[in-house]
Amino acid sequence: MKQHMLFKAALVGVLAVHLSANAATPVIEVYKSESCGCCSEWVKHLESNGFKVNAQNVANPSDYREKFGIPQELGSCHTGMVQGYALEGHVPATEIKKLLAEKPKAKGLTVPAMPLGSPGMESPRKDPYDVMLVQGNGKHSVYKHYN
Prior knowledge:
This protein is α/β, with parallel strands linked by helices. The chain has a 7-stranded mixed β-sheet with strand order 2-1-3-4-5-6-7. A hairpin with a 5-residue loop joins strand 6 and strand 7. It is globular, with a radius of gyration of 18 Å.
C-alpha cells in the first residue's frame, strides 16, 4: 500500500515538472514561404535549441515584417514572433534567449539579408554578420556581432 502511494506521488511530481517545463517553453510563430529551404533549417535550429515553433507557410512573409514594425532595409526571408518580439531572418537561438531574459523595450531582433554561416544558412563559408536590435522608432543597433 505504501509503495503504491509513493509511486502515485512520484508520478504526480514528474508530471508537474513536465507540465511546468512545457508551459515555460516559448512558442515562436514563424511566417515563411513554403518553398524556402533555409527557413525550414532555421525552424530546425530553433527546435533543437528548446523552442516550440509553429511555422506557417504564407504567400508574402514580408507582410509580417511590415506588420511587426521591422524596417524594410533590415529584412530577410522569414519573420517570427515570440512573446511580443519580432524576429526577422536567421537570428541565432542564443540571442533570442538573451532577448527574452533581458526584456528590452524594443520591436525585436533581425539578421538582415541571408548571411552564410548564420543558423539555417550553414555553409563551408562563414560570413561575418550582425544581429540587430530594432527599437520602437525603427532605429537599430548591433546587439551581437558574429565573425
